[in-house]
Amino acid sequence: MKSTLGILTLGCSKNTVDSEHILAALSGRYDFVAQGGADVFLINTCSFIADAKEESINAILEAVELKKQGVYGKVVVFGCLGQRYAAQMPELIPEVDAWFGARDFGPLLGYLGVEGDIEQTSRRLTTPSHYAYLKIAEGCDRRCSYCAIPFIRGAHRSVPIETLVKEAEALAAGGVRELIVIAQDSTYYGLDLYGKRELARLLRALSSVEGIEWIRIHYSYPDSFPEDVLEEMASNPKICKYIDIPLQHISTKVLKKMHRGVTDTQVRQLVERMRKAVPSVVLRTTMIVGHPGEEEEDFNQLLEFVAQARFDRLGAFTYSEEEDTYAAIHYKDDVPADVKQERYDRLMSLQESISYECNRARLGERTRVIVDSCEDGILVCRSQKESPEVDGEILVKYDPGLVGGLGPDELVGRFLNVEINGADSYDLSAEIISL
Q: Which of 181, 228, 359, 405 falls 20 to 30 Å from 138 in CA-CA distance?
């Protein structure tokens, strides 16, 4: 009999892809168990900010306690935490059987009895079978003052277009209908391989894959945003009219301290160009409040910008000082914690009201949705305007008479035509029009 293996993936969707490659590579040697005990328990960690590190460490401590109780045979940790604190963590938590970094896939597999490295086009999905994340590059060449990712993940390395197309074909053959394109900076794609940004060409190539109906872009970067991506989005029906672009701030002073490479004016002009090129585009962004040097005037500029720009989706973080980053070395963390939290609360309160108004404006809209799941007679769906896990949902009452008698489980992964008839700050409700 095969040994059993369980896995816990923490952090971002890029970690999800790493875990799925690892699971595929181990599938011939281990039986995967989603819950309960296992001979080997893997933890894929995150260490992006303080909260993520705390979550990872708590998960490891819980796992080693379960190991003592006999629930797990071995506890093996890999990913960003092991990469960043390779010297410290084995001493701090010696009960862990083995530690590996975010770039140690070959050694991790070898430890688990499988020779070689991961296969780029081979995945065992941990998402629902109808959507998958497609990691188009690893690492980052940016040097944002607050970010430790370049130290953890290394320099930017694009995956060749032909390899990504093969991976997309394999995913589509397994039932995937939606691809979410991800990288540390997706708009940087291709510079290292082709000498220029080639995200638009990649999107065209992925669009040719039979079975893929939606392609969504995450983790864009505002500096030198490739305009041909907007042209492709406007003209290609498979590209979701959706851009995830973390802007982080609007004050030119704060952006300069962050090393973002853009000014207030450039950010505003980019948002304007995006909406002009793709009039129906949904913009999702992220902001950081309390960065060193952020004064009340800078924060008020941010509030004014968010009120004016009216992003469909907006998340925020309070600044977390990360050792070895430029900000930690060269700046004083001079915004008190209570002020950071107060600014965060004000920003998110503003965004909640904007989100509510944006959702209310969609009442009566007829749209195509994909069914993610069914819970207690309610179909949990999304349109092109919602990305899984990070955005709200469209909740649709199941009616067998409107779907040809198909059962709820049979509808998961299928598309429906619905009309939106209810809205709150985050979620929408709708009724079925047709399959």
A: 228
For residue 65, the tally of other CB atoms under 10 A from its CB is 13
DSSP letters for 146-173: T--HHHHH-S-EEPPHHHHHHHHHHHHH
179, two tokens: 């691809």
CB neighbourhood size of 99 (10 A): 21
Which burial class, exposed, middle or buried, applies to 257 when counting CB atoms under 10 A from its CB (0-12, 13-18, 19+)? buried
Give 353-372 pLDDT, tens digit per residue: 999 999 999 999 999 999 99
Q: Which residues contact 180 (CB under 8 A, 6 or more apart)?
A: 13, 131, 132, 133, 134, 216, 218, 387, 388
* C-alpha–C-alpha distance, residues 136 and 329, integer Å: 31
> Of 383, 127, 135, 137, nearest to 241 (Cα)?
383
CA distances from 45 to 7, 13, 126, 386 (A): 11, 12, 16, 26
Q: Beginning with the edge strand found earlier in the chain, give each strand of the sheet holding 38-45 in spatial order.
A: 30-32, 3-9, 38-45, 72-79, 98-99
Q: pLDDT digits over 202-233, tens only? A: 999 999 999 999 999 999 999 999 999 999 99
- Phi/psi for 144 (5° steps) reads -60, 140
- For residue 119, what are its two tokens? 């296969």
